[in-house]
Amino acid sequence: MCILITGAKVLVVSELVKQCVENNIEINYLTTRALKLESHSNYKGFL
User: Fold this and answer.
1) Using CA atoms, how far apart are residues 25 and 47, in angstroms rounded to an integer?
2) Strands 2-6 and 26-30: what pairing?
3) Which is nearest to 30 in space by CA: 13, 44, 12, 16?
4) Exposed, middle or buried: residue 43 (CB in 10 Å: 0-12, 13-18, 19+)?
């Protein structure tokens, strides 16, 4: 399963992201700031 999240750095969404990563659910997120981009095995940001 793969989900797309906007506003991934918001406190409430941060907990959702944490739970998804712990359960091996792939997460893609959108950001408007290049400095907030991260890329891990199941967590990847897009500008």
Assistant:
1) 21
2) parallel
3) 44
4) middle
Residue pLDDT, tens place only, 21-37: 889 999 898 888 888 88
Using the CB atoms, write b or e for 16-36: b if 16+ within 10 Å. ebeebeeeeeebebebeeeee
Order across the sheet with 2-6: list the strands: 2-6, 26-30, 43-46, 39-40
Identity of the amino acid at 42: N
Residue that the structure tokens 């907030």 belong to: 36
Rounded to two decimals, the pTM is 0.71
Domain ranges of the chain: 2-46
